[in-house]
Amino acid sequence: MIEKVNPGHPDKVADRIAGAIVDLAYKKEENPKIAVEVLIGHNECNVIIETNVDIKKMDIINILERITGNNKIKLNLKVVPQDEKLAKNQSERIKCGDNGIFKGVPLNNLEKQISKLARKLYDNVPYDGKYILTEDQLIICQSNATNEKIQNIINEVMDTTNLKIIINPLGEWEGGTNVDTGATNRKLGSDMAQSVTGGEDPLFQFALDDPDFEYPLDVFSSNNILRLAGYQLEEGNHTIYVRMKTSLPCATKEIATNQININKTPTVTFKIYKKNRISCFFIN
Fold this sequence. Notes:
GMP Synthetase, Chain A, domain 3, 3 domains, 4-stranded mixed beta sheet, 7 helices, flat
């Protein structure tokens, strides 16, 4: 599953406010130390800032009004100095006070279309929205727009032949921070796309009609199902090859000879089991 949210989503509103405050710190000082957390919702915004920069409350009020378009939000602001140990650690050069691990995964053609659709929707309907791509369906939750308008935008941007489209399954709605709260960093998984919510199988690499793996597929697999959606394939018999991503000696295994129709979403379902520490593959 891959999720996209637009800049009007409450969590992204919180992220944008935090980002604007960090930008402000860089305008005030050449090498600021700053961390910002934001919780916003229902005409109230709580902001906690750890920093060595002199930031005024009026600066934050101006940021709130610019991003939300609302000049009646109550601001609860707390600005505190950076922790002494962290400040000492970062005194001579830029160092991280926290850490995390992310892996990069190239986007396939279908995911690029979804990103393009998300941008197009926000250009036309600049309000809260979330878009979820699963194995064979696209769910559009877009506020402040009729289903007909949303469908017309979808038709302009992408080919949905292989996708079931579900628009606002709970009905038309109004979104924003008066409906739901937003918090910083709650959409990291959405921002990182496949690196968190999907991605290629870390153990296996796939190839189509290419036993030497000169051109491995830019695809992902989950629950033992290989998805080839978005590839322009000729009708006929194709062979899927798979190999382990490992330095151990391991033979490449042919797992499928499959009749693939260009008008359908090609998938291959396979089973994996280990025997003598070597993975074997069988069509389900």
